Amino acid sequence: MRTDLRRGLTQAIKGKDRIAISAIRSALAAIDNAEAPSVEHHATTSIAVGVGSTEVERLHLTDADLRAIVDKEVQQRTEAAEEYERLGRAEQAERLRAEAAVLRRYK
C-alpha cells in the first residue's frame, strides 16, 4: 500500500493534482507517525551517546494497519466535510470529499 501511495503521489505531482497531493501526503505522514516508536517503548532502554545514538528502530506496520490508517484518514475527511457543509462552507466540504475519494482508491 505504501508503494502504491508513493507512486500515486508521484503521478499527482506530475499531473499537478493539488487535491491528490494533499491527501496522499497526509496519509503517508499518518503512516510515518504510526511507525514512530512511542516514548514508553524505549523508556526502559539505556541512554546512548555518540554516532547513531538517535537511530531508533521504527515500528513495523502490517497491511491491515496501513489500511486502518487510510480508513481513518478517509473517515476524518468525511466527518470534517459534513461539519463544513453544516456551517455553510460548501467549498471546503467539497475539497475534503475529493481528498477522501482519492484515498478510497488505495483501500
From TrEMBL:
UniProt cross-references to Pfam families, sorted A to Z: YqeY
Cross-referenced Gene3D superfamilies: Uncharacterised protein YqeY/AIM41 PF09424, N-terminal domain
SUPFAM superfamilies in alphabetical order: GatB/YqeY motif (SSF89095)
PANTHER family per record: ALTERED INHERITANCE OF MITOCHONDRIA PROTEIN 41, MITOCHONDRIAL
Protein name per its UniProtKB record: Uncharacterized protein YqeY
Organism of this sequence: Amycolatopsis magusensis
